[in-house]
Amino acid sequence: MSEPHATLAEEAAKLDAADELRAKRAEFVLDDSDNDSDSDDSDGTVYLDGNSLGALPAAVPARLADVIGREWGRLRIRSWEESGWWTAPERIGDRIGRLVGAAPGQVVVGDSTSVNVFKAVVGAVRIAQARAAAGEEPRDGTRGGSPEESRGGTRDEILVDESTFPTDGYIAESAARMTGCTLRPVPAPDIAAAVGPRTAVALVNHVDYRTGRLHDLPGTTAAVHAAGALVVWDLCHSAGALPVGLDAHGVDLAVGCTYKYLNGGPGSPAYLYVAREHQPRFDSPLPGWNSHADPFGMAPAYAPADGALRGRVGTPDILSMLALEAALEVWDGVSPDAVRAKSLALTDFFLRCVEAYVPAGRVESVTPAAHQERGSQVALRCADAGEVMAELIRRGVVGDFRRPDILRFGFTPLYTGFADVERAARVLAAVLAEAPGEVA
Ligand SMILES: Cc1ncc(COP(=O)(O)O)c(C=O)c1O
Ligand SMILES: Nc1c(O)cccc1C(=O)C[C@H](N)C(=O)O
To answer: Which family is it part of (predicted)?
Structure first.
């Protein structure tokens, strides 16, 4: 216990006063006075679960009321055109593109992340196998084996990061069976070394959902390309928390959800990025009528549209989609670099407060200390983590419990302040002081 509470609380106040993003908090509905905890701590809820479900942006309810009352209620079918419903997946995709470093025309919104993982992985395998069949050289030819090795459909391996969020692993396994590939789980940091001449695709999480570890997107992408394969990144835990740079790093395909740091709401639609260079060859395994070149031609034969909208499938879920569009307005004028700087300051400060307040041996951080390896969450191993998190929530500090022993705290720079961070660590220390037990 190095630093006293008063010192850290004062420092938090100073950091909040100097925070260039602090005005953004007012753009969210946060139940600051709605703490139904039975503790005597009456200064509201500290919400550190934006990495599961982002808070509600204040602009959303009025926009949804208009969509329901006027666009659906009065304009009805005309809204597909007059209210821009039909083109919403690409329009909102471009808005997300700005946050993940993708130029317009490469991101389409719709379906769940799970469904987009399927489209991306199968689509990427098909591209890799088509290139191999055509005897095309890998981009820099250094590790892809000879053209003979690549020719004739020998790209028959999918790599997946070993600690992936489960849905990605399940879908990659099914995609492998469907495409005649084998699936090889590899720790994400080792994918660059493991990729070889038979690899078609590597599917990697940008930030690990349990540990908060940030994986090396530029380095892994370059290594996968050097072996002549494609990479699909899952951005669920990075988009909206840090700059991603999809175009700058030459990423092939990417997917992500919009209900975490993008605050789109429960079950809001996910997105799919298909780099422009791959779009002509992107052969979706779910070719619905919405991605047909002439959807209202209702032709029996499928002919894909051009561009990112090749990733569409069926009718978009307009209510969720337009709630997401309104939610994304909070990003106007926000620089991803400023978000990243605050995210790192928040997680650094939390780790310091935990170190200062929590008795030694009670928790152990599994989130990397190095900034270049840290996303926007802190995961602490803790004995009886399930009970500890339940008590934290009762006392107004909302995080996640991830089995078997992880307390997970997500830091959303647009609405989390340094005073929240200090209070969360203080309440954690109080809960642990009342419960026996060393780190599990
Ligand atoms: C990394 C990652 N991928 C995928 C998902 C799940 O996607 P969905 O349930 O929206 O299909 C999540 C979270 O639920 C996740 O954290
Ligand atoms: N998508 C979720 C849901 O529908 C219910 C509860 C939680 C979630 C999540 O997003 C979990 C999250 N992906 C995680 O990282 O644990």
So the answer is: Belongs to the kynureninase family.
